Structure formats: C-alpha cells, structure tokens
Amino acid sequence: GESVGLHLPTLSVQEGDNSIINCAYSNSASDYFIWYKQESGKGPQFIIDIRSNMDKRQGQRVTVLLNKTVKHLSLQIAATQPGDSAVYFCAEMVGSGYSTLTFGKGTMLLVSP
Amino acid sequence: EAGVTQSPTHLIKTRGQQATLRCSPISGHTSVYWYQQALGLGLQFLLWYDEGEERNRGNFPPRFSGRQFPNYSSELNVNALELEDSALYLCASKVRGNSPLHFGNGTRLTVT
C-alpha cells in the first residue's frame, strides 16, 4: 500500500485566509519530500520541496514544515487566492535520489471569493 | 525552457488494442518517469527510465512496457488494453539526485 497519506480529502477556505494541508508518511527512511499542485486537466506542478535535514522551508506565499518525530509534513499557503484552488499532493522519496517518488492520495483545496 | 511534452493529449482505443504514448523530457534531464492517474485517484508509479535503461517498475502487469531513446525521450506501450486502463498517463523528467519531478500534462487514454 501507499506509505504517504493525507488527513483531509477536502479543505474549503475563504479568499485571504491561510490554508494548511497536512500529510502523514510512514517510511522513516524517506529523506526528500515534495508538494505538488494539480489543476484540472493539467499535470502536477512543483510547489516546494524539503530535505530531511531541514524542519522548515519557505517559498513565495508557501511554507513547508517537516516533523520527522511524528512523520508529518504540512503545506501552509498564506493569503489563499481563488487561483490556489486545486488538488495538492505530497510525495516522498527514499535514498539518494536514485529512487522513485511515492505520492499521497491528494487534498482538494477550494477557495471561495 | 520548454517543459515536458506528451503526445497525444487524448487517445481512444477499444479493448484488446495496443496504445503507444510518447514523452519528451526537459532538455538536460536524463530520467523519465511514467505514472498512471485513474479518475479521482492518486498517482501510481509505472516505470522509471534513466540513461536508456529501465531502473524500476511499479506493480503493473507486463503488458505495460516502455523504452527510453538515446535522446532521452520515452515511449509507454500498453498491450491488450482493458477497460480499467482508462486513465491519465503522466510523464515526468528530472535530473539525478534529490530533485523534483517535472510533469507534462498527460495523455488521457480512454478504452471502450
């Protein structure tokens, strides 16, 4: 079975709110994590990544937090916009990169104006 | 920089036929991955090619196969199509090491 899962299948927020999407992973050997955004009819788009030697990484309006103790990953989106509405996937990779990427089932983020 | 390109965008086949899907990676990327995304489901890993060789395959039957050409482009072949093969097939490429996969927009395969 999949080793990466998500707590909430759908998250509804108002425009301007901050959004938090959560992800649990079960493989303690995973050392590289990525968040992707997938809009309808398109392929997944890279948002942000983090390596296991980090706890936090920030991008433009997004922050990824990694808690290795409880094997939990989260994506925070600041000032959520309608254009952020999409399905968000977390993914994990084990090893030096010479490996495959395992995806979670995804969370749908719905942003209301 | 051109992204990952896949062709065709849509493909309709009947049960028992064969389908061939094509992928061109980002220039400089040597690894190509194939994923299947059935409607409403997550991405299931199919195949991984690097430097022309198959490095790993997911839990799919042998009728799913592919290859990578010297220019790093790739083909996915699905033989003896079944109705449940209907899905979005995504190709992604990356450079070596801990780096993200970059995806194309997929080929929507419909088997009737």
Name the helix and strand elements of chain A from N-terminus to C-terminus, one letter apiece. EEEEEEEEEEE
Coarse shape of chain B: globular
Give a count of the beta strands of chain A, DSSP E runs of length 2 or more: 11
Q: What letter string, H or E per element, gives the SSE order of chain B?
A: EEEEEEEEEEE
| Secondary-structure-derived class of chain A | mainly beta
The largest sheet of chain A is: 6 strands, mixed
Largest interface: A-B, 26 and 25 residues
- N-to-C span of chain A: 37 Å
Main sheet characteristics of chain B: 7 strands, mixed
The helical percent of chain A reads under 10%
Number of strand elements of chain B: 11
Through-space gap between termini of chain B: 37 Å
Structural class by SSE content of chain B = mainly beta
Instruction: Write down the overall geometry of chain A.
Output: globular
* % residues in beta strands of chain A: over 45%
User: Which ranges of chain B are low-confidence, i.e. pLDDT below 50, for 5 or more consecutive residues?
Assistant: none
What labels would you give this structure?
heterodimer, A: 113 residues, mainly beta, six-stranded mixed β-sheet, 56% strand, globular, B: 112 residues, seven-stranded mixed β-sheet, four-stranded antiparallel β-sheet, 11 strands
How would you describe this structure to a colleague?
The complex is a heterodimer of chains A (113) and B (112). With 113 residues, chain A is mainly β. Chain A is built from no helices and eleven strands. In chain A, β4 and β5 (45-51) form a beta hairpin. The termini of chain A are far apart. The model of chain A has no long low-confidence stretch (mean pLDDT 89). Helix content of chain B is 0%, strand content 51%. Chain B contains no helices and eleven strands. In chain B, strands 2, 4, 5, 6, 9, 10 and 11 form a seven-stranded mixed sheet that branches. In chain B, strands 1-3-8-7 form a four-stranded antiparallel sheet, with no helix packed on it. The relative contact order of chain B is 0.33. The mean pLDDT of chain B is 94. The chains are: A mainly beta (113), B mainly beta (112). Chain A binds chain B through residues 2, 31-32, 34, 36, 41-46, 49, 51, 89, 93, 96-106, and chain B through 4, 33, 35, 41-43, 45, 48, 50, 55-56, 58, 90, 92, 96-106.
